[in-house]
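Sequence in, structure out.
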Amino acid sequence: MTIDETAERVIALPPERVAAYAMDWRHDPEWTQGIRTAELTGEAEAGGFGVGAEVTRTAYFLGRRIDYVLRVAAYDPPRLLDMVSVAGPMPMHVTYSFDAHPRGTLARIRVRGDSGPLYRLADPIMARKVRSSIGKDLRDLERLLTR
């Protein structure tokens, strides 16, 4: 994969609180850069949100509308949410993790992906944009939860 970016931030709240908000797909447009809508379009085998569930997101990235579907590959609240794209313009793997930290929660977002033929020439720009976006995501997550 051509993009592999990670951002992390310590948030002065317990992991259960941070993860409960961040792992709830209904909050995606509130704190995730560029996402305009998120919809649960496939439930987990046991129903609701969990492994196998699918969330369809509409986002804007580098001025383009992108519609994509993320399937939950691992779900272990409050520690881990791991998702892979199953539809969209580029393969992507998104991992949220929340670990206890002496000052609260160490929140991490890792995005791995392949920019695909549409953005191949812009790989270095894409990587910087992803890094910047996920850093802002964590900043906005902290701001929303601590206001």
